[in-house]
Specification:
The chain is an alpha+beta fold and about 375 residues long. It has 2 domains: about 65-170, no CATH class; about 200-385, no CATH class. Helix content is about 30%, strand content about 10%. The chain has helices at about 1-25, 45-50, 50-60, 145-150, 175-180, 185, 200-205, 230-235, 240-245, 255-260, 265-270, 275-280, 290-295, 345, 360-365, 375-385; strands at about 65-70, 95-100, 105-110, 125, 130, 150, 170, 215-220, 220-225, 300, 335. The strands form 3 sheets. Strands 1-2-3-4-5 form a 5-stranded antiparallel β-sheet, with no helix packed on it. A 4-stranded mixed β-sheet has the order 10-9-8-11, with no helix packed on it. Strands 6-7 form a two-stranded antiparallel sheet. A hairpin with a 4-residue loop joins strand 2 (about 95-100) and strand 3. Helix 2 (about 45-50) crosses helix 3. The longest helix is centred in the N-terminal third of the chain and has 25 residues, at about 1-25.
Length: about 375
Amino acid sequence: MRLRRSVLLLLATPFLLVAVQGCSDDTTTAPPPDPPVALSYVGSDVCGGCHTNTFNDFAKTGHPYKLNKVVNGQPPTYPFSTVPAPPAGYTWDDVTYVIGGYGWKARFIGLDGFIITAGGQNQYNLATSGWVDYHKDEVKPFSCGTCHTTGYRGDGNQDGLPGIIGQWAAPGIQCEECHGPGSQHAQSPTGFRLSIDTRSEACGRCHNRGGMNDQIPASGGFIRHHEQFNEMQATVHKVVECVTCHDPHLSVRYDDQTGVNPMKVSCEDCHTGARQSILDGPLAATKGAFACIDCHMPRASKSALTPSQFVGDIQTHIFKINPDSLAEQFDATGKFANQYLTTEYACLGCHVDPGDTKTWADTVHANIHGPGFDVTRIKASAVAH
């Protein structure tokens, strides 16, 4: 019996060798993949080396100037505006960064990284060349890096300044904040393409207040600034992407000085005949002096100041007007705007005679777009929306 088992084992051995050899050939291990290349930020100037025209246009918008470093005691420079000095009692040697300074207002960060608030009169408003209080004497760290810088991360303190929360690759909203780190693209422009996100959500990451939803925060009788995403989400225009209308590389604030139209489409491209209907109505004598946005995008929001009771300094993106004299622009708390415009903001910003009231506006608006304007439908739509 023992001999028989030995013979059988010897006979099976060649087959076992073949089987083992075959398994070895079939399971050859592939080399591990190359580790992902770490991307880094190269700066907008590098982008401008190839994308010259786009860079030159973008350099005239407000995005790069959301935060500006003071270098060697020299103030930052802007394409269309000037911040002449820091708050009273300070020199440029006492300032590390300027927050803004393009278009509306400027605030200042001190040597410790905290926003300068001592004594008040610490916010400079460009429109009036004047100073106002911003959180007078409060301790205000700079925690706005998410939407004021490029390549922000929440850990640490930029430049080792305790008042600055987080760190960044570059101050201001530069090319790479929207398109991603550019090191690989700079080395191989066709081999590594950068992100081009045309969704409104890409803009809405910063152009929102209180979250990316359809609630519209308000304060002091005006919509709060930089919440265009919230406004759009509250309207039927939410199906339209921001870049459908806007060229993000062009200035809206200073388009009159650049000579380049930043809008890719006009209202009438979709609302066919709307402008002609105005000329058929009671405003015919104005010969088209008014644009759609004068009524449907009034300055119902505030960034720096409010020139009059119903006029702020930022245009709203709500569009829809509720002409009912009983309609209210804000909820009972005053902390949120309703999802339509009332005639105080659509009409009474310009019509300021003593008899120009909401009741007056409700009675005269009916024919504003000509005889075919359906007042009942517009009122019902505004209330239901």
